[in-house]
Amino acid sequence: MAETGHSDASSGPARQKVPAVPTVLGPRPLPLHMANSFATWATAPAAAQGFLRGRLDFTGAFTERATVMRQSVDAVDDDDFLARIRAGAAARQKALLQGIKLFLNHPYERTDTPWRAFHKQGAVTIRDYGVGKDGPVYPARPVLLVPSLVNPSHILDLMPRRSLVAHLKARGFHPFVIDWGTPDAEEKRFGLDDYICRRLAPAIARVAAHSGRPVPVVGYCMGGTLSLAASLHDAARHHVSRLALLAAPWDFAAADGAEGENGTDRGGGGLGSLLSTCALPAIRALPEGAPVPVDLLQVFFALLDPMQNDVKFRRFAEMDMESEKAAFFVTLERWVNGGPPLARRVAEDCLAGWYGDNLPARGKWTVADRPVRPEDLACPLWLAVPLRDRLVPPGSALALAGRVAGAHIHRPGAGHVGMMVGSSAEEALWQPLCTWLHAGDPSHDTKPEN
Questions:
Q1: What is the percent of the chain with per-residue pLDDT over 70, rounded to a whole number?
Q2: Predicted confidence (pLDDT) at residue 188 exceeds the cutoff of 70
Q3: Domains in the chain, CATH or no CATH each
Q4: Distance CA 93, CA 220 (A)
Q5: Contact 240/216 with Cβ under 8 angstroms?
Q6: Is 139 exposed, middle or buried (CB count within 10 Å of its CB: 0-12, 13-18, 19+)?
Q7: N or C: fewer beta carbons within 10 Å in the chain?
Q8: What single DSSP character describes residue 276?
Q9: Mean per-residue pLDDT of the chain
Q10: Where is the stretch described as Disordered (predicted)?
């Protein structure tokens, strides 16, 4: 793979340039996000008139805010107030378009930490990051990282100073990363069972055999839940020395902000209810064998907060386009919107089995015809449960702590993605993770290097 002179914050070989995406699609699906925003701002004047005439009802916390706003509006002429609303709405529409235009035309191209393909099966590649200037370098401590199936794997190596892979490598680890790729003809018909039994468990065994010892496995989000199941599978259970799960969902009935429920008989609320009741019928309407396109998945995630992208891209329009902040925004949004299609059976397993029936927390999720029992885990477990996670409620991930004796719980003060690549990720996640991983190997100090 070609190298450039662009270096990470740590010493070592240059990061590898990633080819530019010919057509940057985002935020996806773009028509939906634009329609949400334009409909909101186009109707703002009518809503303002209703407010002036006392025709809008407010409940809960909005009651007090409406009272304060009413006091402010009373000091302004009605016509002047409505004129300001019209002008503000028009300005927001213009700012959104400007932000999207700047995003689509931003020149930044991300780079990879150098890697080689260690093994490939189907579309799944095990990336080997133990590469130096003169070829492969194998430090003493291998570690296998497993991302979600839904988004690209490079969230683990997003960009300089935002890379868990680079951080691990700089501290004496030899990172391997599962890159799920775009499902091939066979994988388009895979379910969760197939990915665990025919891809992930064999990958763990292969990396361990290459390393000559059991290896620690670090799973992020859905990748963590899959890693747990793979670590209990006969093909891999003796090849995992430690298991770290980062914001890995388990109890899909856990409400936002809950501190854990050890198995229930109901399906999830919020995101879970939305996905199982709305997304599942749409996915089952697809042609047999057709994968689920990322645009369809993004529609349902957008429904959680229809105006989120409006706010994000208007803020982006105000940034210095040559700043690191703007480059980070562009890179992260391209990652969010760049996921591969998802095998239909995988989507059905997740939406019906996980979100709909809450099979994992109820002890009814099976892989290879065996129940997935976290209490049978044969290695130490580390749970990173971010305090401000909107995608995986803390109660969902914390549910595993009640199932595994001696599980270590770490609570980063961040969100689901911010924990991994945010400005405080090194302190909030990377360093504590390294400390715990080193503690399992007597050949290393228990503190990460500076």
A1: 86
A2: yes
A3: 30-104 (no CATH), 115-292+341-439 (3.40.50.1820)
A4: 36
A5: yes
A6: middle
A7: C
A8: I
A9: 88
A10: 1-22
